[in-house]
Design a protein that fits this description.
By secondary structure, the chain is of the alpha+beta class. 15% of the residues lie in helices and 41% in strands.
Amino acid sequence: IAATFGVGARVGVHTVAFHELRPDLPGSARRAEGIGVRYVLFLAGAPVGDGWDVVAQRGSTGIARRHGGTETVGVGCVTAAWRGSEGALRQRLFADLATPKGADRLLDPASWVALERGTGEVSEREVPLAGCSVEGALVRELPREPGVFEAEIVAAAAVDVVFRAAAFPSWRVEVDGTPAATGRVGPGFFATRVTPGRHRIVATVT
């Protein structure tokens, strides 16, 4: 994951949030899923918490693998929205990701904060679920070439689908072959809402 200073370019999430992904920290597996991290390096001999399996150790380091969850495509619901200038959004994201409470909120794989471009300081509001629910939703990620994500989504209710990639404006998303609108969610990914049922979603960067 690149460390950059663009709001839509993952906001340097490794730089400010990597310490929260240590497998010994409570809730780290959920936060790791929130940014699409499957493996982490750790110091050999350090404790590994729930949600992680040690898959290799050599010398002073080991590798832990997150079990369960998804990778590049996930489902959740937008529950809040931040609106402000790009600079103000960037500062707020960095500040919140540097705290355990803020990281838990922004990296929750099922509940997201929408990032809306505006002016001035960041204002925050709750977003009604409007029928959105991840209960029983299934994601099947399909292998594609670099620059393309594809997944099948099955959901009993409306659900927001996130693509864990930098939310550059050149991404194009189609749901069942029809162009779909997208929005940004923290920490700088792009997402779209789908209706109940079975859907095939393809995201392509142009």
